[in-house]
Amino acid sequence: MNDVELELSPVYRNLEHKSALFGLTPIDLPLIFVPGNVVLVAGVFIGFSSLWGVLVAVAIAAALVAMKWRKPDDHIERMIAVAFTPRRFSHKERDLLCRPFPLDEKGLPR
Asked: What backbone phi and psi angles, to 5 degrees, belong to 103?
């Protein structure tokens, strides 16, 4: 049997395959179904049509497909990670170390 390098093997190329349907990955399912199910259950208890839960889920799915159009598969995950990671060098945070600007006796920079 011939040994093939891992870079040339078709198995190596398929390891990064992500399953997507219309651009939606499995990580997007909670973003679609949780609000839809909340509206569905609210409709059962409050008394309006349960079809609204399905319409909310379809509307959120259509919005996600439109938002993720021609973007990488992990666009939502990266956007969430960027939103919640602390920023070290940002205009939103104060500097931890404050030093006065070095000036001489006449007020000119050294």
From this structure: -125, 150
Amino acid of residue 37: N
Q: Measuring CA to CA, which residue among 23, 38, 2 is closest to residue 73?
A: 23
Q: Please give the backbone phi and psi of residue 14, each rounded to the nearest 5 degrees, phi first.
A: -85, -5
Q: Is the pTM of this model over 0.85?
A: no
Q: Would you say 49 and 43 are in contact if contact means Cβ atoms under 8 Å apart?
A: yes
Largest CA distance in the chain: 82
**What is the DSSP-derived secondary structure letter of residue 27?**
G
pLDDT digits (tens, 9 = 90+) for 40-90: 999 889 988 888 899 999 999 999 889 888 887 777 788 888 888 776 665
Terminal alpha carbon distance of the chain:
73
Distance from C-alpha of 28 to C-alpha of 36, rounded to nearest angstrom: 13
| Cβ count near 64 (within 10 Å) | 19
